[in-house]
């Protein structure tokens, strides 16, 4: 019988984390609503606790530690990313916070990419610093140059590639090679690529985080996070997530599993449509540049081609100089690209971004305002027409 690990990603996404033969022939795994788990004897109860203490987590002990449903989701994403085991959290930010706090103590040094997700930067600045963690930001294009920033107390290097809002690809293998040699743990936010387009662990990363809120669930209706770990990283992350209470609800986990089945198919279409829309935007006089590594000519295109197997539908646009009134005239009346946070659902979205306020390693320079677009699964002719009408409003407001 062919093992799941031997199949291609699209096949894995359909068959991982479910076992109809163990479940009355039912196609999808059951949803377990659970706090209490009953044990037959004191021996059995204490036995399970011993497993928890050693970090083996063999059996199910209590709802907070996860259920059959959680394990199904974890097994599926772990298979797709080629990890040892995974930890499910109540949201993507929870997976980031649990992973960072799993490896950092007072007096340790943390290196973070300057283009990381804003709320993750906020956690580092407002909490980790307060607990005595030293932090240095590095530029996303640093590559092997990161070695110059290593200190004797450097414990963790945090990566996100491409960066939030500005979409620079980082040379992940160049960084993880140096970290492995020094015993520095690497944690990477893989949300943009999803497990379909990039496999962080196969590029030397120890913990790969996905905000399953985004592409994995894919329908803009739930919050969920997952951290896929190597064997060495799993116990610290699992223990920290448990100790911090970052557990997820079973219905959300079940819905994310449904989303996962169509993830490879959706990613293909997101990429195809985003490339069309991004290429069209490049030809617009109102646009200074489009930040999308899948575009030939993007400064990150070569690295993206080398390491990624695809792109998602999320990218940035830098406008030429225009007034706030002009920018708002465009965004206030979009019909398909509705204004809102988050992305990764089936529908298109846009949001104004302010990268300059989130940079400390190197100042952000742009001639005008910036916009982040999520290209959904609508027909691209309709999406382009929506943007074209938006540009007309922008010009009319001058
Ligand atoms: C949204 C997002 C997160 C956080 O996920 P939540 O589920 O919203 O907490 C983390 N990283 C990136 C890159 C994101 O876009």
Task: State the gist of this model.
With 398 residues, the chain is of the alpha/beta class. It has 2 domains: 255 residues, Type I PLP-dependent aspartate aminotransferase-like (Major domain) (Aspartate Aminotransferase, domain 2, 3-Layer(aba) Sandwich); 134 residues, Alpha-Beta Complex (Aspartate Aminotransferase, domain 1), CATH 3.90.1150.
**What ranges have pLDDT less than 50 throughout 5 or more consecutive residues?**
none
Please count the helical segments: 12
Give the end-to-end Cα distance, rounded to a whole number of Å.
66 Å
Radius of gyration, taken over Cα atoms and rounded to an integer in Å = 22 Å
CATH fold-level name of the largest domain:
Aspartate Aminotransferase, domain 2
Which sequence of strands runs across the widest sheet?
1-7-6-5-4-2-3
Provide the list of bound ligands, each named once: pyridoxal-5'-phosphate
Order of helices and strands: HHHEHEHEEHEHEEHHEHEHEEEH
**Number of beta-strand segments:** 12
Largest sheet: 7 strands, mixed
Task: Name the CATH superfamily classification of the largest domain.
Answer: Type I PLP-dependent aspartate aminotransferase-like (Major domain)
Helix fraction by DSSP (H/I, runs of at least 4): 25-40%
**What does the overall shape look like?**
globular
CATH architecture of the largest domain: 3-Layer(aba) Sandwich
Portion in beta strands: 15-25%
Count of distinct structural domains: 2
